[in-house]
Design goal:
It is a single chain. The chain has two domains: 10-134 and 292-311, Rossmann fold, CATH 3.40.50.720; 139-287 and 320-344, Dihydrodipicolinate Reductase, domain 2. 30% of the residues lie in helices and 25% in strands. It has helices spanning 19-28, 46-56, 67-71, 88-97, 112-125, 139-150, 182-198, 293-305, 313-332; strands at 10-15, 36-42, 60-62, 78-81, 101-104, 129-131, 156-166, 204-210, 223-230, 234-241, 243-254, 257-261, 271-277, 280-286, 336-337. It is an enzyme of class 1 (oxidoreductase). Residues 335-371 are annotated as: Disordered. This is Oxidoreductase. Residues 358-371 have a biased composition (Pro residues).
Length: 371
């Protein structure tokens, strides 16, 4: 699989060179050298191609028009898609047609139909598809799952989360044609956390979606609030916003105690558990680490060993179907029932991979989304 003759390394092309790709994804390959190799970069900006190619020692560089040429060169085994949400389906299907495995950023796509098409295309081509749920490999998140399942805080019946930031004007998250809006950007963390912690799928949702008061949000949802009813009389609720001060937290409440994780979702700081059982409270901090290298290592393991990734396309679809129901509820002002959906795979501590933090480099023509 490798030009160097090492048959145990998967060769990657990163597609897209926005802020996340530059400060987190590209540097993460330094922490994945045991089975992964960064060999190609595809971006539409010539300045980015030149600067990032030199920074990371990438020789195979091209514009989006060169996508198939690079994929069919024999030099690439997998792509990491870090493009706007509306392009995830197209670039996944094109990779599958070229026989190349796909690691795609979340949300998987902007609709259930697109998700199903991505699954169908990769299955038909017999290539692996994984959605980049980085917290499925992160210790703080996985230990929260273990606590929820252990009975330490009793029967867990409530999940509550707030995840907000101030998004800069004209960021891709403010453009509906690019799949923008806060639900598809920040909602995946809350919905996925609730599904993971309850280890179940929601049966009904009720939601509100609010447009912004300034020009930043244009025609997308700036703030969305949703309540999800799960089997066993369990309730999850969350608020996400791209027009409020930055917060990142979730809390699970059981019959004997509760666990608050705050910060909860980020990759630039330590994540912290605040656990209360009865009258006793403890705080546990999980040091900042690279959350992107582990998912690259894991996906390469799946490719090399021929196994289905845990956060597969079906996991991405599971979230997107909930997003569609939330938006439908917000539009109609009525609760929306979800049909049954089975998931046999759930993340657990066995997936934890610890890689040291990497200091993010200065991005090239790719400012942070946050103000």
């Amino acid at each position: 699989m490798s030009r160097s003759g090492d048959q145990r390394k998967v060769r990657y092309a990163v597609v897209g060179a926005g802020n996340l790709a530059q400060v987190a994804i590209l540097p993460a390959f330094e922490n994945a050298t045991e089975n992964s190799e960064l060999v190609a970069l595809i971006t539409g900006d010539e300045d980015k191609r030149e600067a990032l190619g030199a920074r990371h020692g990438i020789e195979l560089i091209g514009d989006y028009e060169d996508y198939e040429t690079i994929l069919e060169s024999g030099e690439v085994d997998a792509v990491y898609i870090a493009l706007p949400n509306n392009l995830h389906r197209e670039y996944t299907e094109r990779a599958a047609r070229s026989g190349v495995h796909v690691l795609c950023e979340k949300p998987m796509a902007i609709g259930v139909e697109d998700c199903e098409a991505m699954i169908k295309a990769t299955e038909a081509a017999k290539v692996r598809l994984m959605i980049a749920y980085r917290l499925h490999f992160e210790e703080a998140n996985l230990r929260a799952v273990a606590i929820a399942q252990s009975g330490e805080i009793g029967e867990v019946r409530v999940f509550s989360s707030v995840f907000t930031q101030q998004v800069r004007a004209d960021d891709i998250r403010t453009h509906s044609e690019l799949g923008g809006g806060v639900l598809y950007d920040m909602g995946p963390y809350c919905v996925n956390a609730a599904r993971t912690l309850f280890r179940a799928e929601p049966e009904e949702v009720y939601a509100y979606a609010l447009k912004g008061r300034d020009e930043r949000s244009r025609d997308v949802d700036e703030t969305t609030m949703a309540v999800m009813r799960f089997p066993g009389d369990r309730i999850a609720q969350f608020v996400v916003s791209q027009g409020l001060a930055g917060t990142s937290a979730y809390r699970i409440v059981g019959t004997k105690g509760d666990l608050r994780v705050e910060p909860a979702y980020g990759y630039t700081e330590a994540l912290v558990h605040h656990l209360t059982v009865g009258d006793e409270s403890t705080e546990t901090s999980f040091e900042r680490r690279d959350q992107f290298g582990p998912q690259i290592v894991y996906f390469s393991q799946c490719i090399l060993e021929g196994k289905e990734p845990e956060p597969s396309g079906h996991e991405g679809l599971a979230d997107v179907r909930v997003f569609e129901a939330i938006l439908r509820s917000a539009e109609t002002g009525r609760p929306v029932k979800l049909p049954p959906f089975e998931r046999s795979q759930r993340p657990s501590m066995v997936q934890e991979i610890h890689k040291p933090a990497i200091e993010p480099p200065e991005p090239v023509k790719a400012p942070s989304p946050s103000m």
